[in-house]
From TrEMBL:
SUPFAM superfamilies: YheA/YmcA-like. Pfam families: Com_YlbF. Belongs to the UPF0342 family. This is UPF0342 protein P9850_09915. Coiled coil: none annotated. It comes from Anoxybacteroides rupiense. Signal peptide: none annotated.
Length: 117
């Protein structure tokens, strides 16, 4: 692979780090970290998410109780202003990265599509 692609990828990384969206996300994380209640809720919610993702990944069944527990944790999280702001900013950043991934993958998709024709 061309070194210029890696150089561009590193430039993109720096552009993400210095973007206003990322800086807002970073500030939101710092605000949650400074708030003991929000930080504890955040860690609890993330732990539940990780457990459920791991179960999904391994094909293990997720019990109705686990789903209910996750829904309750999500509802509590959304009631906390700092956490709801953080989650909205995380979602926006995730969408931006997904959009960039679509752009990056376009040449391969076009190539694959040309084989199917």
């Amino acid at each position: 692979m061309s070194n210029s692609l890696y150089t561009l990828a590193q430039q993109l990384e720096q552009a993400i780090r210095t973007s206003e969206d990322f800086q807002q996300l970073k500030r939101a994380y710092e605000a949650v970290r400074r708030d003991e209640t929000a930080y504890r809720m955040f860690n609890h919610f993330r732990q539940l998410q990780l457990q459920l993702h791991e179960k999904q990944f391994t094909g293990a069944a997720i019990s109705p109780e686990e789903v209910e527990q996750a829904q309750k944790a999500m509802a509590l999280t959304q009631q906390n202003e700092k956490l709801s702001t953080l989650m909205a900013l995380e979602q926006r950043m995730s969408m931006t990265i997904a959009d960039m991934n679509q752009i990056i993958m376009k040449p391969l998709e076009e190539l694959y599509r040309s084989f199917a024709e």
